[in-house]
């Protein structure tokens, strides 16, 4: 598992979206060049706690947008199941499928591996979030070892506002 540290550039990645497109982080950053980006990893559409957290983020999207923060969510699940969740919950931000856990592992997200048959979920990433600035540098990370204890949307917004004020103070001191 890799260890990202504050200030590190996060790895670029390409993953499929639930709409069938390919999402490239570098292109997303270029299209949103003045924005920060919150990358949220979640267990999967089968996790009630994760779905609840994603719905909470959706409910606060306007506030995130006012802070110039885009939202991206990633799970180790196939696009078909994730698409069903997006449609049922009416989520509007990009949801990406990392079926082989390559990006989950590149970000150092804790993973759970369970022995099971082909029908069962055998591996998934635990909840985590990474806030990166417009240059792709890591400003904040939170990684969980289980489904509970993650920052709620309000906590994430408070953290973002705090980091923005720190950046403005640092910028005015130069």
UniProtKB/TrEMBL annotation:
MF GO annotations: antioxidant activity; oxidoreductase activity
Alphabetical list of InterPro entries matching this protein: AhpC/TSA, Thioredoxin-like_sf, Thioredoxin_domain, Thioredoxin_ResA/DsbE_sf
Keyword vocabulary terms for this entry: Disulfide bond
Pfam hit, one: AhpC-TSA
Domain of life: Bacteria
Domain Thioredoxin: 4-165
Matching PANTHER family: PROTEIN DIPZ, THIOL:DISULFIDE INTERCHANGE PROTEIN DSBE
Protein name: Peroxiredoxin
